[in-house]
Design brief:
By secondary structure, the chain is an all-alpha fold. The chain has one domain: Up-down Bundle (de novo design (two linked rop proteins)), CATH 1.20.1440.60. Helix content is 80%, strand content 0%. The N and C termini lie far apart (78 Å).
Length: 159
């Protein structure tokens, strides 16, 4: 019996569902908007929209190679791009570049991306705070030990 094992990617970010969802959104958006712009202003709007959607995936990919704190900053930048996509979804809808069902689909993607980004940021913070808590606990133990040693030393000096 052959067991299917998922091979780890060379690029760590490719293993993140969040990255896959961001790429999926960009692909959907390009496919949806590629033929809808009829004026120069609409083309500019579509270009900005596609750029913002691509930046979500790019921020995730770029940040994955840095420390957790720096990764968190890249994830926050990705959330900024998601909010930009939300605004551009609204504008595109009002200009009738997106149909009602396409607007709703875009918003669903963006809400899911926001939740996923938020969860990953919280997860990174928990791991960081757990390390800080254990480091603080270790420092408190060291301080306590030092204090008791100093007390013993002072006590010995008195005699």
């Amino acid at each position: 019996m052959e067991v299917n094992k998922k091979q780890a990617s060379f690029f760590r970010f490719e293993d993140l569902r969040l990255y896959d969802k961001a790429v999926e959104y960009s692909k959907w958006l390009v496919g949806t908007l590629k033929t809808k712009a009829t004026s120069k202003a609409e083309e500019t709007l579509v270009d900005d929209f596609v750029r913002a959607s691509l930046c979500v995936a790019k921020c995730i990919a770029e940040g994955a190679y840095y420390s957790k704190k720096e990764f968190e900053l890249y994830l926050k930048d990705a959330k900024t791009n998601v909010r930009e996509c939300y605004v551009l979804t609204e504008i595109s809808s009002k200009l009738e570049l997106l149909a009602t069902d396409e607007t709703e689909k875009s918003k669903e993607y963006l809400m899911e991306l926001t939740r996923m980004l938020g969860a990953l940021i919280v997860s990174l913070n928990k791991k960081s705070s757990n390390k800080r808590d254990s480091a603080t606990d270790n420092n408190e133990v060291a301080t306590t030990n030092t204090e008791s040693t100093d007390e013993n030393y002072e006590f010995n000096l008195e005699f």
